[in-house]
Specification:
With 415 residues, the protein is mostly helical. The protein folds into three domains: 78 residues, no CATH class; 104 residues, DNA polymerase, domain 1; 182 residues, Intergrase catalytic core (hpI Integrase, Chain A), CATH 1.10.443.10.
Length: 415
């Protein structure tokens, strides 16, 4: 049975009970109405965020919230102040709700559930997708499926969005509409039968240049030559060791920056923390990993030797502390590691790459050598779908491709 049918039956039963009670003198409807009105007044006044005070002149004062600040309200009695406030808050309740209204209602809850940086991203995305648009100003009750389709398609085309950004835009609208339905601002959700993928055909195809996506074998040889030179010339420069560690483990740069010696066991590295940056306070802090999960990565002889070298260097120079990668200023932050890699790329004359390139390369090497998506995803800390769609690339060179084709051709010619 549909919700509105259930609500209809419930209201009918309640009315019958009230009528029976009224006819038999059990309750006084006028008294009930008065109590309801008093409760409503109390509820509205409790919403008021400012104090109601009396000044030395005998006047009563408070503020009325406005979109940009607040407005002083000064009247002769407290009762008049309350009447004006009740009228103000009733007008807000009765005013038609726009998409903007419901978006910020959804945000009020969402901001309490996510980390600060996510809220900052919401602000950026709101300005990018919705601020100043006719869609945002439209009454939410009047928004239908066609309105949403037209807005998404026009926004995708106007901003040249790829599939990922399109999915984000769709998600915002879907969350707001769902919140509006929960809060009974709309009776039906117009997005009930819509999916993000139906808009992908309008998206811009974003192709990452292969020279930035992964690190080829030839490039890796050049980088290792540079690592050895750096270790000899400036053995106390810790970021170089952190970059080399990224090659071995494919860990995210934030995970490397947040790695402590307590996370290193005889058998494995326990990846359970990541460095984050608060854009408002402009400070770094250590938090959970991106997917909020802990994972283990096996320690090879190469990794063990590298960590041993780091420990000796830090102890010799007085850097040794709880963090694996530290210098005279304490824990090394992620941007310093990323910057170090870019410097190394320029030094050896290859395209600048980010630490994530090592992550994609390690995954592609594993997959190329027959490792299952499940195992590769578990080692790197993401899902199999993400592994397949964003981390698996063709790393074979032309000679390897030629050998494969030659074997197939030779087999065919012998038939």
């Amino acid at each position: 049975m549909k919700e509105r049918d259930i609500l209809g039956i419930s209201t009918q039963i309640e009315n019958e009970i009230l009528q029976y009670a009224y006819k038999n003198g059990i309750i006084n409807l006028a008294y009930v109405r008065k109590q309801v009105e008093m409760n409503k007044r109390k509820e509205l006044l409790e919403k008021h965020p400012y104090a109601i005070t009396q000044g030395k002149d005998g006047k009563w004062r408070t503020y009325i919230p406005e979109k940009e600040g607040r407005k002083l309200l000064k009247l002769s009695t407290k009762e008049k102040i309350e009447e004006r406030l009740i009228k103000y808050y009733k007008s807000i309740e009765e005013a038609p709700k726009t998409f903007d209204d419901m978006y910020f209602k959804w945000r009020k809850v969402q901001d309490a559930l996510v980390v600060h940086n996510s809220s900052v991203k919401y602000d950026t995305d709101y300005k990018r997708y919705f601020l100043g648009t006719d869609f945002a100003k439209k009454e939410i009750e009047k928004i239908n499926e066609e309105d949403i389709k037209l807005f998404i398609v026009s926004t995708v085309k106007r901003l040249g969005l790829g599939k990922k950004a399109c999915k984000t835009l769709f998600g915002y609208i879907n969350n707001v509409m769902r919140s509006a339905r929960i809060n009974r601002a709309i009776s039906n959700n117009p997005m009930e039968f819509m999916e993000a993928k139906q808009f992908y055909k309008y998206c811009k195809v974003i192709v990452r240049p292969k020279d930035k996506t992964i690190v080829t074998e030839a490039e890796m040889d050049l980088l290792y030559q540079q690592f050895r030179k750096d270790h000899q010339k400036n053995p106390s420069y810790i970021p170089t060791y952190a970059v080399e560690f990224a090659v071995f483990t494919g860990m995210r740069v934030g995970e490397i920056a947040a790695l402590s010696w307590d996370d290193i066991t005889e058998e494995c590295i326990i990846v359970r923390k990541s460095e984050k940056y608060d854009r408002t306070t402009k400070t770094y802090f250590v938090d959970s990993t991106k997917n909020l999960k802990e994972r283990e990565f096996p320690i090879t002889e190469e990794i063990r030797e590298l960590l041993h070298t780091v420990k000796l260097v830090e102890a010799k120079n007085g850097y040794f502390c709880e963090w694996v990668f530290a210098n005279e200023n304490g824990r090394i932050h992620a941007p310093m590691i990323s910057s170090c890699l870019k410097t190394k790329c320029r030094q050896v004359g290859i395209t600048e790459k980010g630490i994530h390139a090592f992550r994609r390369t390690l995954n592609s090497e594993m997959r190329h050598n027959g490792v299952s998506p499940a195992v590769a995803a578990a080692l790197l800390g993401h899902t199999e779908a993400v592994n397949e769609n964003y981390y698996t690339f063709d790393i074979s060179d032309m000679n390897e491709k030629r050998n494969i084709i030659e074997r197939i051709n030779k087999k065919g010619s012998q038939r």
